[in-house]
Amino acid sequence: MSPGISDLTALLRTMEPELHDGAYAYCVVPPGTDLSALSPVATVAEAEGLTVILPEAQAIAAGFSVLFRAAWITLTVHSDLQAVGLTAAFATALGQAGISCNVIAGAFHDHIFVPVDQGPAALVALKALQQGAR
């Protein structure tokens, strides 16, 4: 496995944001809930319960309460988990556009969840950030 990019300028130039189709739901379920029939994007274990992010249709079919409807954007650049400044840069760009974001870092990519109706505007803001770094 090749190391990820850690240089902030290089990360911004090559981040290539990708907006996934559909709506995604943030839900909280009790620990131990069987998720085997579902396709969660991510789970986060917290003292209050298990946060699950999954396609909205699956959440509704499972009877989960939806806390937040989100659009999902992946930065397709392979970012180093120890890179400094990338999250701050894109969060600032989105904040300046009036768009809230929730971020999850995978081993290879950063995943950004924004209000579902602001997905296209968030993509525009992220692409502008990328263009500004070139």
Short description:
The chain is an alpha+beta fold.
Notes on the structure:
Helix content is 28%, strand content 29%. Strands 1, 2, 3, 4, 5, 6 and 7 form a 7-stranded antiparallel beta sheet that branches. The chain is α+β, with helices and mostly antiparallel strands. The longest helix is centred in the C-terminal third of the chain and has 14 residues, at 119-132. The protein has a single domain, classed as VC0802-like, CATH 3.30.2130.10. The protein contains 4 helices and 7 strands, in the order αββββαβαββα. The radius of gyration is 16 Å and the shape is globular. It has helices spanning 8-14, 56-61, 86-96, 119-132; strands at residues 17-19, 24-29, 42-46, 49-55, 68-75, 102-105, 110-115. The two termini are 27 Å apart. A hairpin with a 2-residue loop joins β3 and β4.
Q: Spell out the CATH superfamily.
A: VC0802-like
What Rg is obtained from the alpha carbons, in whole angstroms?
16 Å
Q: Tell me the number of helical segments per DSSP (H or I, 4 or more residues long).
A: 4
Number of domains: 1
Q: CATH fold name, please?
A: VC0802-like
Average predicted local confidence, pLDDT: 96
Q: What is the CATH architecture assignment? A: 2-Layer Sandwich
Helix content: 25-40%
Tell me the β content.
25-35%
- How would a textbook summarize the main sheet? 7 strands, antiparallel
Which word captures the global form?
A: globular
Kindly provide the name of the CATH class: Alpha Beta
Strand tally? 7
Task: List low-pLDDT spans.
Answer: none
Helix-strand makeup class: alpha+beta
Element order: H for helix, E for strand: HEEEEHEHEEH
